Amino acid sequence: MTTNAVAGPMHPVTERAPTAETSTSNVLQRLMQIRVGIIPLPVYLLLLGLIAAFSFKGKISGEVTVMIAVLVAGGFTCAEIGRRIPILNVIGGSSLVTIFLPSFLVAHQLLPAPLVQQVTNFTKFTNFIYLFITAVVVGSILSMDRRVLIQGFIKIFIPLVSGSILALGVGGAVGWLCGIGFWRSILYVVVPVMAGGVGEGAIPLSVGYAEALGLDQGAMLGQILPLVFFGNLVAIICCGALNSLGKRRPDLTGDGQLQPGADVATDTVRDHAHAGVTSVDVATVAAGGITGIAIYVFGTLIHSLIGLPAPVAMLFLVVLVKLLKAVPASLEEGARVVFRFFVTAVTYPLLFSTAVALTPWHELVEAFHPANLITIIATIVTLTASGFYVGRLLRMYPIETAIVNACHSGLGGTGDVMILTAAERMELMPFAQVATRIGGAITVTLAIIAMAHFRVI
Questions:
Q1: What is the mean pLDDT of residues 139-152?
Q2: How many alpha carbons fall within 13 Å on the CB side of residue 154?
Q3: For residue 180, what are the contacts with CB-CB under 8 A and spacing of at least 6?
Q4: With helix as H, strand as E and coil as C, how does the chain read?
Q5: How many CA atoms lie within 13 A of 264 on its CB side?
Q6: Terminus of the chain with fewer CB atoms < 10 Å: N or C?
Q7: Range name among 13-27, 115-129, 258-272, 394-408 with the lowest pLDDT average
């Protein structure tokens, strides 16, 4: 037997009028949805005000928390500016502005001196670019399919070697036509651009040249260094243009994968390997991060024993770990989450700190000699275009192979970050490291031998 309750008299529902407090809360919540990069707008404005106040009072702190605030605010401000500049925004404007605007402001003393000093100290003393490279290399390799990894590392040497040879020939010929001379163009313009950056490229190259010619090493470095910076700029623009091409022609790109079918294979393997892994807890993410750090520290030990650069040693070690299946699927996923976090949150702050501390504006400007410019542009366009076409012949994604080839003219690890940021393909970092570190080392070695033989002054 069902008993129906008797309803009482119904009263109209009256809505409570919004109070000033709720209106303010709603406005604030809407504003928090607007972001400058990853920063909610109210937080961004608060950070700018605090940083400006402390900077102009000369009391900006160098502690890590304050420096994170400064780098995040500066990096994403520059990225947002670059994203909104017409034409520039289709060739990597965000990364270009983040790299060169702070350098220009520092050179013209338009940033507060205490701020510049603290950012410079923090960048040089922590050297946190190696933490970034560790997170990106370890995370991207551990999340790859083993078969794809092996094929990629074997295949990538073909477009890299052929592109390097063509770039040397074209660069030398263009330099000769511009009045620099064939061998002088190769040894003083093309080789420095492809030497692998400053610390592992321009500096040992200048030492080798100075010893072979009996000249001052400092003067030789001053001659080489501006060309290295300008070459990196040209590579950034080329890869930004390739990224734009990839958006118009999806058939030419794997969105960070080197070979057709690699993305499908990777997803399939990961789905099987991670069966039952529905989410990754914080402890597993932390374990993935510390695993990467341990591999890098092991690489520094190898460097101290045999002289192999720590990032290269780390690259070989993490590939070995992947091939031996030494890491469980859950830990691989944790490393991948760390990788994605660094790409999303750390890239532009890192570029900003590098621009303030390590990118001298006057050295870049000094490279703007017409003959040098034409020769460098011809070299890097040849290097990139050969990667595109050779990659296509090898049934690799041509845009990805072209980007890896362009990294051969990068400014070391920092340059790889800049180039891959403009290309929006940070997943290619392991292959970029091969192009920059190994390709650069081979280039420097052969160039020093050639200089000792030809003695070109």
A1: 81
A2: 7
A3: 188, 189, 371, 372, 375
A4: CCCCCCCCCCCCCCCCCCCHHHHHHHHHHHHHHCEECCEEHHHHHHHHHHHHHHHHCCCCCCCHHHHHHHHHHHHHHHHHHHHCCCCHHHCCHHHHHHHHHHHHHHHCCCCCHHHHHHHHHHHHHHCCHHHHHHHHHHHHHHCCCHHHHHHHHHHCHHHHHHHHHHHHHHHHHHHHHCCCCHHHHHHHHHHHHCCCCHHHHHHHHHHHHHHHHCCCHHHHHHHHHHHHHHHHHHHHHHHHHHHHHHHHCHHHCCCCCCCCCHHHHHHHHHHHHCCCCCCCCHHHHHHHHHHHHHHHHHHHHHHHHHCCCHHHHHHHHHHHHHHCCCCCHHHHHHHHHHHHHHHHHCHHHHHHHHHHHHCCHHHHHHCCCHHHHHHHHHHHHHHHHHHHHHHHHCCCCHHHHHHHHHHHHCCHHHHHHHHHHHHCCHHHHHHHHHHHHHHHHHHHHHHHHHHHHHCCC
A5: 3
A6: N
A7: 258-272
Q: Mind listing the pLDDT tens digit for each residue in 57-94? A: 888 888 999 999 999 999 999 999 998 888 887 777 88
Contact call for residues 127 and 350 (beta carbons, < 8 A): no
Cα-Cα-Cα-Cα torsion 243, 244, 246, 249, nearest 10 degrees, comes to: -170
Instruction: Report CA 386 to chain centroid distance, whole Å.
Output: 22
- Decide: 357 and 67 in contact? Cβ < 8 Å: no
- Lowest-confidence region among 23-37, 52-66, 125-139, 414-428: 23-37
Distance CA(374)–CA(379), nearest Å, equals 9
Q: How many CB atoms lie within 10 A of CB 136?
A: 29
For residues 341 and 9, what is the distance between their CA atoms, to the nearest angstrom?
58
* Phi/psi of residue 192, nearest 5 degrees: -55, -35
pLDDT digits (tens, 9 = 90+) for 287-342: 999 999 999 999 999 988 987 778 878 888 988 998 888 889 889 999 999 989 99
Once rounded to an integer, what is the mean pLDDT over residues 414-425? 89
Report the 10 Å Cβ neighbour count for 329: 17
Q: What is the mean pLDDT of residues 195-216?
A: 80
